[in-house]
Automatic annotation (TrEMBL):
Cellular component aspect of the GO annotation: cytoplasm
Subcellular location: Cytoplasm
Protein name: Urease accessory protein UreD
Family, similarity comment: Belongs to the UreD family.
Chain's gene name: ureD
Major localization listed first in the record, in broad terms: cytoplasm
Amino acid sequence: MKENQFGKVSTLSLEAGKREGKTVLSDVRFTAPYKIMQPFLLPDGGIQVMLLAASAGIMEGDRQAFSFHILPGAKVEFLSQSYDKIHPMDSGDAKRETKISVASGGSFCFHPQPTIPFAGSAFENRMEIELEDETAVFQMCEILTCGRYARGERFAYRSFRNYVEIRRGGRLIYRDNTWYEPELFSMEETGMMEGFTHQANLFVTKPEDGEAFCEEVRNLLEDERKNCQGGITRLAEGDYAVRLFGWRGQVLEELSDKILRLLRKNPV
């Protein structure tokens, strides 16, 4: 386990390349508590990489640092089977930093761990994604929660920040700065999360038929309006962002998966 001025740092570094028409992991390094399962081969020559965590919690003094490097032509889907449980800390905040680079012709679908802040905890997540050019494909689905709602800890954390920047060729194409501080303002009265318990943020690089993709997403949201609410936005350069609100993380996960599967019909 590495050390820095904040304490222990759990690290995960993954690099994927392409060999003989198939994606392979060219380098994987990590410290406890992570474990990478044997990659699943996908029909298109890509791979699905699954992360398990021996301990899902971020404890006092711990930090997490993730880095992913998708080399030219490689295609990777990354998902986690664990939840980060953010525990209260006497000093400082729990922090995670994630850096992702996708080279020309590479493709990366990223499903980071949902985070569950406990009462009295504070969490800051920062993600920096760099796409080399127009041929670099990136998809992401992340889910945020209001806390342990079943235990009466709705918005009981000290602060919760999620900061994401995505650049293509060095040019900023997407930024999301979600920053909740219940002690400074009422989350309910200001409409934060609009009365729901879970929020899902999706980003996809521009599909070939963006209008068809957008229409199908809107139809899905209409069908699911009893379980959740949301909307889709076309960004300046033809990429799309989707934001969903609901009362159960599983519902948002299932709907997000349906949305991402639409890209198979409208490939990038």
